[in-house]
Amino acid sequence: MFLDVVEIHLAAGRGGDGASTMRRESHVPRGGPDGGDGGRGGSIYVAVDTGQTTLRDFEVKRRYVAGDASGGGNKTSHGKAGRDLVIGVPPGTAIFDAKSGDLIADLVSREQHVLLVRGGRGGLGNAHFTTATHQAPRHAQKGEPGELREVRFELRLIADVGLVGLPNAGKSTLLAALTAAQPKIGDYAFTTLEPNLGVLELGIDDGRRPTIADLPGLIEGASIGAGLGFAFLRHASRTRVLVHVVDASAPDPVRDAAIIRTELEAHNPALLEKTTLVALNKLDRPEAKEREAELTAAFRELGLHVLPISAAGGERGEGIAALRDALADLLPDAETLSYPAEPAGVVVHRINPIASVGFEVSREGEGFRVRGKAIERLVHQTDFARDESAERFQHELARQGIESALRKAGCRSGDTVMIGELSLEWDDPDDASLLNAAEEAEALELDGVLLAAVPNNDGESEG
């Protein structure tokens, strides 16, 4: 089965947690913190695989997950990075964001590969957080989760010549006459249910090997979903030359050609700008042969280059050699006749890009939403089960000016503040402290709750 459109789910690997350890050796009396960093989570790339011709490999497997990284260890040992995942796709695959519909990348040559989701950063170990006044920190960062993304692959065959026409116009027969391809041929409509490819032989001394694609038949309304051919119109977009195959024995061949042009224009007006030939087919039939001169003149009056042919006669059929010569003149030289020139290398496409610095506060429902790359990353990296880490998080809210901005935005005691996937409860505007909602902590699988410091009965503070 020819599969040319598929949606898949991508999940990059999680970064490893930083370690919170202390150096304990008999000959090192003041060992201090020595927790190492977590590794980076695995990323997912998509690369061109010239051995593939369809997206059939994605028919069953629709979810791809890269490897998680391991955490850091003592003696500042670094965690192992998660394993990257490379997904192979056939040349001509366009990648779209499944939600927005935006084009992410168009992969046409074997050198191209694209980074779709990046693995999470590893957390820093406690060895990074020593200061002159805090020699033994227990704080260490958690690893960031990897990026998630839903993407749609659309295969657009890379062919130099495209054969288009109404059902039963003789496109598959013409492909067989011009190439060594053996498509299914029948004297009924919609014999071709999927694109067929063949290589056009231009002669022993000609080093070019252009490809020809026979696209399933179009009918009126194909551009808005009628019939079978509408699903394959995208494959005409990469061709250099379009051959409109018209049945000369049909009641109104000129109208048939007009239908083809109308559907191509409705799908993509740029298709009409391509070099076009009209192959007036089935001249082996008496009723068609009688109208050859009349139809040829009618097409030429419309400014179309028309060639009368009989594909049923095979490679020696009437007009086949002339059509082959015409295509040879229209196609570029061997060096140009290859995949479209596209920039190679790695391209990174981020999800919902956020400014790397700064933040913004906005109303959301009954609460407030804080957006900012740095603070959202900090939420993921904070281990709220550790009092020291929770306190550090609160200090960052104050240091970055987030608490002040929330107060100016009208945040009051008891209001909900959302940062990333975390929900916090505003506790005391005067102290500008935040309480982490316990149910949200449980939903995020956090082991502890961020609490404002309050005095206990002994006059000491507890967290």
Structure description:
This protein is 18% helix and 23% strand. With 463 residues, the protein is of the alpha/beta class. The chain folds into 3 domains: 1-155, GTP1/OBG domain (Spo0b-associated Gtp-binding Protein, Chain: A); 161-330, P-loop containing nucleotide triphosphate hydrolases (Rossmann fold, 3-Layer(aba) Sandwich); 360-462, GMP Synthetase, Chain A, domain 3, CATH 3.30.300.350. It is elongated, with a radius of gyration of 32 Å. The two termini are 62 Å apart.
Present the secondary structure layout.
Elements: E1 5-11, E2 44-48, E3 63-65, E4 85-89, E5 93-97, E6 103-107, E7 112-117, E8 148-155, E9 161-165, H1 171-178, E10 196-199, E11 211-214, E12 241-247, H2 253-267, E13 275-281, H3 286-290, H4 292-301, E14 305-308, H5 320-330, E15 345-348, E16 360-364, E17 367-371, H6 373-381, H7 387-399, H8 402-408, E18 416-419, E19 422-428, E20 433-436, H9 438-443, E21 454-455, E22 461-462
Parallel strand pairs: 1-3, 2-4, 7-15, 9-11, 9-12, 12-13, 13-14, 17-18
Antiparallel strand pairs: 1-8, 2-7, 5-6, 5-8, 10-11, 16-17, 18-19, 19-20, 21-22
